[in-house]
Amino acid sequence: MMTRVPLRRRFEALYAEDPGFRGIVERLRRMLLDPDEPLDAHAALHLFNEILARFGVEPVSATYITPRKSVHLRLPEPPPPPSCLDAEPPPITVVQPRIDVEAGDGLQEVYACTYARGDRRVHEVTLVFGDEDKPPSGGVLDLWYDLWRLVSWGRVADIETFYIVESPRSYTLLFTGLGLVLGDGGLRRIPPIGSGGHRYYEGAHVYEAHTVPRGPLTVYVNTWNHALGVADNNPALEKVVYGPGDVPAARAPRYQVENRYSQLRYSSETPGV
User: What is the pLDDT of residue 1?
Assistant: First the structure.
């Protein structure tokens, strides 16, 4: 079984060196990412199975991969790229189920970008995880899912963003969505990433806002798709705790983080605050 990094490198090498493979990927990406290109789900699945065949992977059915349009809108005037203030967010501890970390999905990097919104500061915090494996993980299921992500997202790594809004005595954590602007002005909407009451073996995309006292913050990774919350929804699962300084951290807005990990190119973003 090929590991994730060689899988990504093999995909990128085929894309660069094999015009036939590149053509298949681009036809499928147009269906998913071009607002003006109709999506034919049957044809999209056929193209994806052609990609799987190049890797010697058995074909997938719509039971496991259902092609859906990822970009529905092209912005007439894309927003300018955001710039980050010379400021740092409060110290953040991230708590993640060990079962997720041991599957190769652990937290790898943290990025932050601070904006001014009126008289308040907003810290955009982006977490990068090694992968996103849907239980039961392993075998061909992971290969299908990873290759689909390489086509539709241009990456295997999972990237999630939340916001911290400062007030004089408190912080408000917003687990909300945002928009990523592709180079051609297509707007890719990222759904909210709150976990609500969901647990590890469930997926979640819930809008949440939590106000907490100022000070160090703890954020819990509660689901396999890395939905976040301020309470632990999995008390019976062993955890890995990432404190400040335990993983590399840098200053960058979400769209720049995407460009570091993705084969797709983004030109800007529409923040979720």
Answer: 41
Give φ, ψ of 108 to 5 degrees. Answer: -110, -40
CA distance 97 to 220: 9
Indicate if the pLDDT at residue 2 is higher than 60.
no
Count the helices and strands in the chain (H runs, E runs).
6, 14
Scan for tokens 């601070």, then name that residue.
114
Buried b (16+ CB within 10 A) or exposed e, 126-143: bbbbbbbbeeebeeeebb
3-state helix, strand, coil split of the chain in percent (to 5) is 25, 30, 45
Domain residues of the chain, as ranges? 4-71, 92-270
Residues in the chain: 273
Do residues 54 and 167 touch, judged by C-beta distance below 8 A? no
List beta partners, residue 218.
93
pLDDT tens readout for residues 130-175: 999 988 877 899 999 999 999 999 999 999 999 999 999 999 999 9
In 3D, which of 174, 97, 176 has the Cα closest to residue 133?
97
